[in-house]
Amino acid sequence: MSQPLINTASMIVETARALGADEVTAWASTGTYTDVKQRDGTLEKWQDSQSRSASAALFVDGRYSVHNTNDLRPAALKQFLSRAIDATRHLEPDPERRLPDPADMGVTSGDLELVDEAAPEVDHRAWVDEMQVSTTGAIPKHLRSVEGFVWSGSSESAMVTSNGFVGTQASTEFGQGADVSMEDKDGRLPEAYDYAVARHQHDLPSIASIAQSVADRGLRQLGSGPVPSKRGAMLVENRVASRIIGTLVGPLGGGAIYEQRSCMSDKLGESVASSAFSLLDDPHLPKGMGSRPYDGDGRPTQS
User: What pLDDT shows up at residue 187?
Assistant: First the structure.
């Protein structure tokens, strides 16, 4: 599948250059996705989708814009790019935007194991039924409703730039989980959920362990209430920590800093957090959900 995507991205670059773009980055991608939900024995949702799309980042007369389309026919792409280039010429100048030096571009070597080549054909109906029934059985009382959900998908993309970079990425994804609604003695209806996701299907934790985790979370909600306000150490659950970290990571993004939308713009080399805090971004973890061989600019990823 990679070569057709490379061909599409290359065609976008060549067409855009012929229409007047100074520099171009093009992406072409395809994907499949299945999402199934079942509540209390009744199938609530079954969604199968397939997608094909393309994007073009255009550098035109010192101006920059990004455009997306799902129509990949050559004639339609030419019209799409012609309109996109004309629209870009009406934007404010952005002369510092340009493609990276080709010497800085490339793909990280090594297999990140992002594709589950050995995954068997998935029976989503039996899978979601087992997820929902297992969660129901883990909660003997106070249970109002249980929804089980499972999903799987795969994607592949190609990136081509007008200064010679060509890269491809592919990945698979499998996930399962459940959410529950409980009945408390005071009439409240507390809710709880848990889920797991992995690149390889066999790396998912067992359905029984997820069901038990959802049950434990739901039962802990019963009889709960507010605690008095006070100062003290706080233990943050890992799935909640991402919201806190996101507050810090957002302003560190290159786009936010470049566009002066960041409070970190002038903090290079300065301490911005406690010395007890460490944050590591490792895009080379085998089977990692955030792992990738190159970034959106075509540079090889680094830890």
Answer: 86
3-state SS class at 166: strand
Q: Count other C-beta atoms under 10 Å from residue 111's C-beta.
A: 8
Task: List pLDDT tens digits, range 221-234.
Answer: 898 888 889 998 88
As a whole number of angstroms, the distance between CA 96 and CA 62 comes to 8
- pLDDT over 90 at 240, yes or no: no
- Collapsing DSSP to helix, strand or coil, 135 comes out as helix
The model's pTM is 0.89
CA angle 140-43-120, nearest 5°?
Answer: 95
Q: Helix or strand or coil: residue 7?
A: helix
CA dist list (Å): 152 to 121, 138, 253: 11, 25, 29
Asked if 199 contacts 287 with a C-beta cutoff of 8 angstroms, the reply is yes
79, amino acid identity:
Q
Measured CA distances, 243 to 181, 203, 250, 286 (Å): 24, 25, 10, 24
